[in-house]
Amino acid sequence: xxxxxxxxxxxxxxxxxxxxxxxxxxxxxxxxxxxxxxxxxxxxxxxxxxxxxxxxxxxxxxxxxxxxxxxxxxxxxxxxxxxxxxxxxxxxxxxxxxxxxxxxxxxxxxxxxxxxxxxxxxxxxxxxx
Length: 129
Description:
globular
């Protein structure tokens, strides 16, 4: 009985994990930056960026991955839950640079890791032109 229950639980876990996806938002710019103090998963991961369209190939995170929220915010997990704090801070610093210089970015969206329902990103490319 215990083995079959454990098998059922593991099977359900495997099924839920198979729905997690990764996508890339292209032709985007950073529209807003959100910083929140504290730790854990209840503070939006400590830092987030909001994306806006910067070209014809832009698709919202929600359009690419329907489980992401509709307001175009993504978390870098500066709290250290899904990325090291150092890695998340580096992503945030590059996002701040892109925001200040009004540069285009490409950003990865991962819906398998979330803070307060917001999808996670651990990849950011800032383009010169």
